[in-house]
Structure formats: C-alpha cells, structure tokens
Records
---
Amino acid sequence: MIEFRNVVKHYGGQTAVDSVSFSIARAEVCVLIGPSGCGKTTTLKLINRMLEPSSGEVLLDGYPVASFEPEELRRGIGYVIQSVGLFPHMSVAENVGIVPRLVKWERSRRERRTDELLDLIGLDPAQYRRKYPSELSGGEAQRVGVARALAADPPVLLMDEPFGAVDPLNRETLQLEFAALQRKLRKTVVFVTHDLDEAIRLADHVVIMREGRILQHDQPAQVLASPANEFVRQFVGVDRALKRLACFEVGDHMKRAETITREESRNRLNEPNGDGGYHPILWVTNRDQALVGMLEPELNRRSPLAYRPYVELHPAEVGVRPAASLREALSRILGQGLRAVPVINDEGRVLGEVRLSDIEELNQTGITR
Amino acid sequence: MKRIGAFVLPVLLVAGFSVFVWSEGVRELVLRSMFPGRISYIYERVTLARLLSQHVALVAVSSGLAAAVGVALGVFVTRPIGRDFHPIVQDISSVAQTFPPVAVLALAVPAIGFGFAPSIVALFVYSILPVINNTISGLDSVDPAVIEASRGMGMKRGQILWLTELPLAARVIFAGIRTSLVINIGTATVGAVVGAGGLGTVIVSGLVRDNSAYVFTGAATAAFLAFGLDFVIGRIQNRLYDARSD
Ligand SMILES: Nc1ncnc2c1ncn2[C@@H]1O[C@H](COP(=O)(O)OP(=O)(O)OP(=O)(O)O)[C@@H](O)[C@H]1O
Ligand SMILES: [Mg+2]
C-alpha cells in the first residue's frame, strides 16, 4: 500500500531521513518510533507530500506520490497532526467536515457524516457539534482530530503522536478506543509515537528509527524478543520480556478449563491425593454457568486429599477477558497467587484458563538473550 | 432592566441627533440656550443635513477604498510573491501613521488641487495605513501550525487564505478598518479647507466669523458620527466573535 524506496530528506546540510526503504501493507498499523528528532514526522510528511524527498521515492498503491496533485493526494489521506492542530475559528462540526467541504460534498451529506463520526468517537453530536476547540478538553480535542482525519473515509491514515498531549490514563482510553475503531475500519495506518507501550498496544509492525535510519522493522513481539542491536535493546528496556507479553492475547493462548457444579465439588473434595499426578484447578460454576468459586489442588504431597476446601471467587477480580493481554493475565496470576486464572466472558462464564506454565514457556521460546 | 437600558439609550441618542440635524427650529433653540446673544445660529448657505451627507460620502468612499486596497496590499505582501515588499510596506505604513492627518491633507492640496476628488485621495492615503498595518500583523500572527494543518487537510493556497488566514486575522483587520474610519470622520472635517464640503464647512465658517455656535454644530455632528459608527462596528465585531472564546 505504501512503499519507501531509498528515501533521503535533507534540511540544508542536515539529513533528517537517511536512505529509508520499507513498506506498509494494506489495513495494517505501522508504528514509527524512536527518540525525538529521529525523523518520524519527516517520514510521515513525505507520504502526503507535505515534504518532498531529496532523493528516492514514496509509492502509494504502486504509484509514486509525486504523480498526484499534492492537494488531491492530501484530501485522500487522513492526517492527524502532532499537537492536534484543530482550526480554532471553526466549530467541532466545521473542523470535522473540512475535507468533505473541500471535496465539495453537499451540506446535508456533510452534516450527516459529521454526526456519524462524532458518534463514532464517543462525543454526543448534539452537545459537541457547536463547540469551539478552545472549549474542549485535551482528550476531546484529540478525538476530534481523529474524526477530522476520518471524515472523507480515506483508506490511509497518518497519525503524528495523536495522543501525545493527554495524561497517561486518558491516553490509554484513547488507545483502546482507537484499536477498537481500527478493527472495524481497517485503515492503513502510519502512526508516530515515542511511547513504546503505545506502539506495542497498537502496532502490527513497528519501525524503530534513529538519526534518520531504520534500525529494526518487525512485529512488536519480535522486536521485543530479539532486538536488532544494542540501541534497540536499550530502547525497549530491560523489562522487554514483560512488555512482550502485552503483544499476546489471552484468547489465543488459553487452555481448556475444567468446570464443575457446586454439588460435584463436594464429591471432588474427597478425592484422594493418590500418586501425586496433575490436578487442575476446578472452576466452580452456578446454575447459569457463571464462575462462583474454585477448588485449588493441594500442593503438599503428604496431604491425603487432592483438593483444598472450596474458595469463593469474585469473577471480576480473578477472571480475564479473551481480549486482554497475557501481561494482564500474568499480573492476575501473580496477584491471586494461583497457577492459572480463568478466562471469562461478559456473563461470567468460564471460557478457558491461562496457565503460568504456558506463559513461562512462551517467554522462553521467543526471547533471545 | 440593564438590557432595556442598553437598547433605549442608543435609540434616544439617535433620535435626539436626528432632530438636531433635521429640525432647524429645535437646533436654534438648543444652540441659543448654549450660546446666548448671537446674531445667527443656523448656517444659512447649506443645510446641515446636506453637509452631513457630503461628509458621509467623503468618509464612505475614502474608507471603503482604503479598506479594500489596504487589505489587498496586506494580503499581497504576506504571500510568497509579495514577501519582498513586506518590510518596506510595513515600515512606510507605520512611519506614515505618525504624521498628523492635517499635515497629510495640507501636503495633498498643492499636489492634487482643491475639491471632492483630491480630498478623497488624501483621506484614502492616510486612512489606508492602519488597514495595511493591521492586515499584515493580523496575517503574520496566525499560528503556523494552523496553516500547516490547513495544508495537511488538502487546502490550496487560496483556500488557506479564505478559510484559515483571513478568518483568524479578521478581528485585527476589523480593528484597523475601525480605526481608519474613525480617523477619517475627523480628518474629513479638514476637507472643507480644500473645498470638499462636509461638516468642516460650518466649522470653518464659524471660525472665520467667530461664531462658536457654528463651530459646535459641525464638531458635535462629526463627533456623534464618529462615536455612533465606532459603536456600531464594535457591536458587529462582538456579534461575530461572541460565540468563540478564542
Ligand atoms: N523544517 C525544518 N528545517 C530544518 N530542520 C528540520 C526541519 N524539520 C525537522 N528538522 C530536523 O530534522 C530532524 C528530524 O525531525 P522530525 O521532526 O522528523 O523528528 P521527529 O522524529 O518527528 O521528532 P519528535 O519526536 O520530536 O517529533 C530533526 O533533527 C529536526 O531538527
Ligand atoms: Mg515529530
């Protein structure tokens, strides 16, 4: 979808982008990351011709971007600007509707689209349509910036630190919202950040840059597992193993869980320890099959019984959702002091379990020292 | 209560002003009570209403031209093609503004001659300066990030000017036009000296004949015109910018 071929960009004597080649597939989120001044914004602006390369070329759908009229090109590419960049003299609706206005949609169609987008980003149109950017919170302004970029439904989205200006808590909310939105919209997204956790959370591929060069271009889990060089290793940090767990979804790594009813649990309580073979945690469910408690295996070999007495559980505290990350599952496992935690759905039904041993195994197979 | 007052007061003032201008009987009564013991209170050669309309014509034409040409010039020197003229135009317009208006007019007479048209030219030259000045500083003060955003959304040069720069600079540009208008209303009274008519005629006549009632008539009318117009433009400005708290 987007391809860089030996792209170089000089500013005067300084080289901001140094012979960069890489490509981004359709519907993928590619995150450019690196220290300040490494050329991320410059790289992004070369795509929609806000900047022209000193040499090399950028292709969009196989055509050099230089072959398009710059304004036409930009109207077809959504752009979320570093530090928001909303028009202060235009209302929220006018801001969101600017590209449709430039490509001459009728007013009624524009208004419908604006409302639709405000709904999509979780701002009530009736309440926000008429507001001006100065009346928005940082998070709301960022959302409007995203809506504006999506307005004419462009296949490609360029996002330059779109959530940079909000506090960490709000940023996480925005990231999760964006991830959900992207699952629906499936745009080709080039996303700039210098927040590694954000990159891990959102990226299909990350491009790690330094001084205008690409150091590594790979899936986030792969970058964390085997950093290409010392700089990347330092950049991703000593806790990369833990960060890497954030790349995996619980749903992909859960195992079958054993569930029993409260009545059955009474029988199992008398089960003898026997030969000390493997005893799974027994998740106890009620008549609606919702998780209510568990029987935990006895670890003390000399105990005559296989299971400890029944323990009541709060599903919200113990259970993880299939969409959660293994990192979250691990933190539950450690928090509860268990060997596994149940995977539950919205109704509290047990879908499976995530085991500490599986996480350990996954960790060992991927990581290079 | 306050709102009613805000509405009633201007209406009363305008009504009083109209009566003063159009009814010579009332005017004579007012002036007689202010300046007792004169021979004449009413300028007899031309009606005050006619002088007022001449005055308004002088101001409207010269200020209209100044606004149009001034904004255009300000836009020109902030475009890439006009950039070279930016410093010259800005210097000239800020220096020229320090000349007293009367001096400008006095210099214009030997150059252009007497009458309505030369007065227009002189008034135009003087009142264009605040417009140019404010247009330039208004456009220069637009946040480059917003212009960058406009470019990023796919606006062409002209669209950036119309949809982003001018609206954002409008407040400052309007302030320039407002200043130029108010200055022009005052300066136009001096136009009488060069035979352009207007409210200055009755003032000059009063000065020559040592008749303070005449001088007051012209000065008060011009002053009211200036205040009134300034008030109205201020209102329009507020109306335009009330909604956005930028
Ligand atoms: N218009 C410009 N003129 C000259 N140098 C520039 C210009 N824009 C960027 N640079 C330089 O090019 C380099 C790359 O800049 P760029 O904006 O792409 O960095 P970045 O990775 O986006 O940084 P940040 O994370 O701080 O936004 C920097 O060293 C910067 O100083
Ligand atoms: Mg940047």
---
Amino acid sequence: MTKPVIIVGASMGGLRAAEALRRFGYAGPITVIGEERHAPYNRPPLSKEVLAAEVSHEAVAFPQRESTADVNWVLGTGVERADLEHGTVTDSKGETHAYGTLIIATGLRPKRLEVQNSELTGRHAVRTLDDAIGLRKELKPGARVVVLGAGFIGCEVAATARKLGCEVTVVAPGSHPITRPLGVELAKELQRRHEAMGVRFVMKTSVTDLVGTTAVEGIVLDTGDIIFCDVLIEAIGSHTNTEWLEGNDLDLTNGVLTDNDMRAVKANGEAWPNVFAIGDVARFANPLFDAEPRRVEHWNIPTDTAKRVAQVFTGQAEGQFAPIPSFWSDQYDMHILAYGLLALADEVKLIAGELQGECVFGYYREGKMVGVCGIGMRTTVMGYRKEFELK
Amino acid sequence: MTIKIDVDMTKCQHYGQCVFEAPDVFRLNADDKLEYTAEADDSELANIEAAIDVCPMQAIFIVK
Ligand SMILES: Cc1cc2nc3c(=O)[nH]c(=O)nc-3n(C[C@H](O)[C@H](O)[C@H](O)COP(=O)(O)OP(=O)(O)OC[C@H]3O[C@@H](n4cnc5c(N)ncnc54)[C@H](O)[C@@H]3O)c2cc1C
Ligand code: SF4
C-alpha cells in the first residue's frame, strides 16, 4: 500500500494543501490531522464581522469540495512528535502514522501575558473559533474591555468591541497602533479614527500585573496606574507551533525554514525531499524582495504555499516561487487593503487621496516600492499590485 | 455548458481579489464596487475556483 501524504494542521493551509494536491492530479491517500475539533474555517472574521454578530462554525466554515471528499480528516487530535528519519508522526492518542510525504501546516498560537496573577479567569485571546465564541459572550454593552496589543488583531477587536457598545481601552508598548508595518503617519491617523469612535489608547506602557481574586478585574501598568476592566483581551503576538518537530534535523528558529519549493531544510542546508511547510508556520525567502527568509502571516500565504507544494510534489512547478503578500483589515467603516511587505520600507509616503479621508501610501526600500496600502481607494491600490510581480 | 455564479453581496466587501483570478467574470466598477457576470463558460471553472479561494469574505459560490 502506498503511504499517504500526511498534513499536520487542519486549518486553511491544511485544507488548501489537500485541495491543491487533488487539483494537480495526485489521486493517492491523504490524511489531515488537526488539533481543533472543527473542520477548517476562516479566521479573519473572528475579530471582525462574525465577532460583531454571531460566532458559529457555520458562519466561518470553508466550503468542502467534492475533490477532497475522500480525504481522511483526523480532527480533535494533536500530533505530539515526528520522526522524519523513519517517516512517522505520533498523535495524542498514541497512534503512529507512517507517511510518504509530510506537510507541516501547524500555524501559530497566541502569546499570552506572563505575570504573577496569570491564573485569573476573564482573559481572552483571539485565534480559534472557540476563543471567539468564549469572548463574544462577554462583549456586552457597557462592559469595560482592555485590549493588550495594538497590532491588526488588537485594533480589529477593539473596533468590534466598541461597535458592540463596550468601553474599550487599548494598552500597548508602541507609540501608535500598527506603527509597524503601516508607518507613523498612517498609524497616527488610525489612532485618531479609533479615538473619534470612543476608543481610549494608553501607549508606551506595559503590564506588570493583574488585579483580581478569581476573575480579572484590572491591569497594573509599569507606571503604577491601574486600569479596571471586566474583560481582558491579549493580542500581543504569537508563537509558532513547532514543538512537535523538535529533535529532528530542521531549522526551527521562528517557524520551519524552507527552500523556495517549501521543502523543509536541514541544518546542512539540504532540503528534506518529502517534508514541506506551508502557511503561517513556514519561513521562506521571497525572491520578490530579497534572499532573507521570513514568515508571512497573511491570509493569501496558506493558499499560495499549498499550491506551490502541490506543483512541486506532482512535478509541475515552474520558475521561482514569489507570492505577492496581500492583506486586508476592516475597522469600523475603514477598509484597509495592502500588497507587499510594508515592514521592509525605509521610506513611506502618501501617494494618493487625503490622509483624513480615503488615502493610499507607498512603501519604499532604497527607492524601490516594497508595499502599498490604502484606506478605501481599492482600484488605486490594486493598480500598484503589478509593481510586485516578478520581472 | 455554463457555470452559474452567485456572490453574496451582504458579505462582499469589494476587495477585488477575485478580479485578479477571473478578470473575465469579476471586475470593480468606477465606484470601486464589484460587478460580475452571473453565467460563465465552463472553461472559466479553474479561474472561478481560484477566485472562490482568494475571496477574503468567502462570498463567492457556484450555484448547482
Ligand atoms: C483573528 C484573526 C484575524 C485575522 N485577520 C486577517 C486579515 O484580516 N487579513 C489577513 O491577511 N490575515 C488575517 N489573519 C491571518 C490568517 O488567518 C492566517 O494567516 C491563517 O489562518 C494561517 O493559516 P495556517 O493554516 O497557516 O495556520 P493556522 O490557521 O494557525 O492553523 C494551524 C492549525 O494547526 C493546528 N495545530 C497546531 N499544532 C498542531 C499539532 N501539533 N497537531 C495537530 N494540529 C496542530 C492548529 O490547531 C490550527 O488549527 C487573521 C488571523 C486571526 C487569528
Ligand atoms: S474577492 Fe470577494 S469580497 Fe472581494 S470583491 Fe470579490 S467577491 Fe467581493
């Protein structure tokens, strides 16, 4: 019997890998093993429109295709270790599965606040459907909500909580929300718009402790001030889920290092012929920008990297793999759309529109455009996309 | 044979990602709003499936 392709992680990356393998003609067995109990679903709405309405699996589930009807889904089961030399993975039920090819799609989990009082209830993170279901119940009108972290997810959750009538304070160490990667000018404007909606910002501050006996009642800042709250949302970054791969010949510094074919790389620089990594957990160089391997936590990456793996696996890959990173974010009536890697820029400038209305910013490194980001003005933003195509 | 397409306009946020995948089916008009052709030729299937995959709002459906 042929050994299956085993995909570990049953989220967007895992699903797209199974679909792409079928699309490119692989008809053999596929097993997907995933820790969450839910079939693959879409995460972005969990901080946006679905969190504002009703959170359910139905509202976010990815449609299942006929082509993947025979895929063996092993859900609610984590993989605890892998033995790449012998081609096996062992799950939390103690079962060992042999693979012909392994696709790593285990993504990220949220970083959590580490303070003395950290066993209090009422603390939330937003990564999974179950996280969002738990949080939604507490976002009642008038609830005092503290959002720790002012990145994309922090800002989106702040906007949603505000929409639901909560009193929202964002607390973060930076000077303005999402300064990286948006740049100071746009970040300041974003803060102004949030403030106009009634969100309070306490910036350049960190949390030293929590207040409360069983449930969290407030946070203690490094200034000594206390902010009281009913709900604490931690959006302070993430860890890569790679512990299960430890002990194998891989580079696991910040994700799984891969080559341009998404093949996991050994310490000596050679690639494993039958081990791939995709999505948020993969760290790879993108020839659109340079030779520096990076993880890219954007929604198009699971789909694009899964497609590359399927092409490589079936011998249909052509040319270099150079996906154009793209992301969007919805906050109130602001629709932010971006292409490229904004964080690489050494210069950011307004290239269309007006800062206080709809606007487009260009991001440049040594004079060459590396990113574009707009609030509204989508056609203009999209017009710049071709700047990033591999020439 | 043709493929029938439906976009849930209550979900669509006019991000235009579909436009890059299936430009003969989807486009943004002068007001940055999505317009699409509700019926496309079978030869468009692969492009339409790609558009379904990249739609951030998961708003595109093939009507059976
Ligand atoms: C709230 C939120 C909002 C977002 N909004 C946007 C947005 O607006 N725009 C945008 O571009 N991107 C957004 N993103 C990012 C986008 O959702 C991610 O890039 C995408 O989910 C990555 O998919 P993935 O499959 O690589 O990883 P993940 O979605 O992290 O999936 C990994 C899966 O692997 C499972 N797993 C982990 N370890 C194991 C193990 N040992 N064994 C078995 N299974 C395991 C996990 O349980 C999980 O289900 C958002 C993300 C979040 C959380
Ligand atoms: S990709 Fe989806 S959200 Fe964007 S315009 Fe097309 S249908 Fe609408």
